[in-house]
Amino acid sequence: MVREIMRDEAFLSQKAEPATSEDISVAQDLLDTLSAHKDGCVGMAANMIGVNKRIIAFDSDGKYTAMFNPEIIKKSGPYEAEEGCLSLSGTRKAKRWKSIKVQYQNEQFQTRFKTFTGWTAQIIQHEIDHCEGILI
């Protein structure tokens, strides 16, 4: 189901609760909402659709992917980026990393590790910031 985009900065600034297997439908709503906004958005976190859970969805080379409870466990190559956000107006500067290793759970809640680089890594970092209550 496509959900309305949350713009309440007080809500968006809250640290997200861990996701559980009961949150599978939230991930689907996140993927549906991301797809509906594909012209201006490449990633979303659950709090952007009003659900304070640690779930992100993003475009990974044309394929939408959802992650539950993602955490960056390794990072290298710092740089400064300028980013926009569907929940906020304008763009802001953000410190990002060229390469990140992420620990997360898939839809079966199996723990996985994956290294991302470049644009996909930047998207994931932005969405994990949302999970931490960090607004760019």
List keywords for this structure.
136 residues, alpha+beta
Describe the structure.
The protein is an alpha+beta fold. It has one domain (9-131): Peptide Deformylase, CATH 3.90.45.10. Helix content is 23%, strand content 42%. The protein contains three helices and five strands; from the N terminus they run ααβββββα. The chain has helices at 9-12, 24-36, 118-131; strands at residues 43-45, 55-60, 63-85, 88-105, 111-117. A five-stranded antiparallel beta sheet has the order 1-2-3-4-5. β3 and β4 (88-105) form a beta hairpin. The mean pLDDT is 95.
Summarize the structure.
Helix content is about 25%, strand content about 40%. By secondary structure, it is an alpha+beta fold.
Topology of this protein?
Elements: H1 9-12, H2 24-36, E1 43-45, E2 55-60, E3 63-85, E4 88-105, E5 111-117, H3 118-131
Antiparallel strand pairs: 1-2, 2-3, 3-4, 4-5
Distance between the termini: 27 Å
Rg over CA atoms:
14 Å
- Specify the structural class: alpha+beta
Q: What sort of overall outline do the alpha carbons produce when their principal axes are compared?
A: globular
Total strands: the figure is: 5
Helix content: 10-25%
Mean pLDDT: 95
**What CATH architecture do you see?**
Alpha-Beta Complex
Main beta-sheet annotation: 5 strands, antiparallel
Instruction: Report low-confidence residues grouped into runs of 5 or more.
Output: none
Number of helices: 3
